[in-house]
Amino acid sequence: MMLDYKTLVISLGVSALCLLLTLFGTWFARRGDGFLLSWVIGMAFLVPGIFSYSYYTESPSGALGALCFVLVLIGFAIIYAAAFQFRTGRSPVPHVMSIAPPAVLMTAPFMLIGYDGIGFVALNIFSAFMLFGTAAEYAKARRESPGALTGMAILYGATGLSFVLCALVLIHEGQWVLGHAPTNWAEDINTGLSIAGMTGVGALSLMVHQGRITARHRREAMTDALTGLNNRRALFERHERDTFSHEMAVIVFDIDRFKTVNDQYGHAAGDRVICALADELKDAVGVSTAARLGGEEFAAVLMTAAPGYAEWLAERIRRNFAERDMQAAGLSFRVTVSAGIAYGLAAGRNFDGMLSAADSALYEAKRNGRNRTMVAAPDASPPVATRTTA
């Protein structure tokens, strides 16, 4: 038995409602993703728009048609803005405000004055525009999840194309005044594609969302919570397989007398000191990877280091850090840092060897008075000081 047009529209509404409930449940379980909430809001407009349109197919009226148009167009505008928010992380509100009002004002009035055919043409054109825009946003973001986001872009684009077909059929047949919902082959294709697209987009969206959660957990596992730098695990995962030549270097930093800072000024002040050194490493030019190894110890990896550059960089960080005025309970104080440097070898040196040599140089810097930089010699001889503080 062939399904009539109203049944198809109701099926579309049920699919949209199921997607709405699924998305809301997903967002409610983890409320950190704003784009999901925006999408839920868009669907909350679209679902009643679809169901009211199914009623319009049986009892057409200008007021009901205008209401359908308003709900559907606002829903599509918010879904388009949610895709923009997904890609950029920026607020969707400007997108919605720039698209929805013009779309509503250029479609709904035609339903109220009796030119419903023109209204349907305008509705299809604006809907296609927003669906194409949504497809473009996901296509631009496809590097994050190539398969899923490309699939979403294709589904949105295909659905948008079906709206274009609906508009072209009405224009070709010159149907400016209908008095009822349009019924033709393009409308059937549009409804079928919308049902399939709704289901496919829902599944792919959940896949992308789960991928984002997994990636976020991995970032959290690899990031030091206090400083935002890589942690020790991330440092080793990134460099444990590298072979370091003589033009590569590792610098290890350790804050001098850090326990005294905590004892005298409190742990909150100690955290600010740690963050201050982290900021110096973030701003350093030429550092491939900066990481907090634990406590007050940090490491910087230089994958390209001309002769003398690692010493110059370590000294620059040491001096800048020593000149910072720290504040605690109305008191001002300064803290120093020591550094140990290890260069790779012409024959190559693994990361464990680099870190061990840099640690040895750091130990010598501490033993020789702190607040200085030492370089590990490439052989077994003791590390040598490159510069010391006054």
TrEMBL record:
SMART domains: GGDEF. CDD domains: GGDEF. PROSITE patterns: GGDEF. GO terms for cellular component: plasma membrane. The keyword Transmembrane helix applies. Its EC number is 2.7.7.65. The chain crosses the membrane at residues 6-29, 36-56, 62-84, 151-171, 191-209. Keywords: Membrane, Transmembrane, Transmembrane helix. One of its GO terms (molecular function) is diguanylate cyclase activity. The keyword Flavoprotein does not apply. It holds the Pfam family GGDEF. Signal peptide: none annotated. GO terms for biological process: cell adhesion involved in single-species biofilm formation; negative regulation of bacterial-type flagellum-dependent cell motility. Residues 246-378 form the GGDEF domain. It is an enzyme of class 2 (transferase). It catalyses: 2 GTP = 3',3'-c-di-GMP + 2 diphosphate. This is diguanylate cyclase.
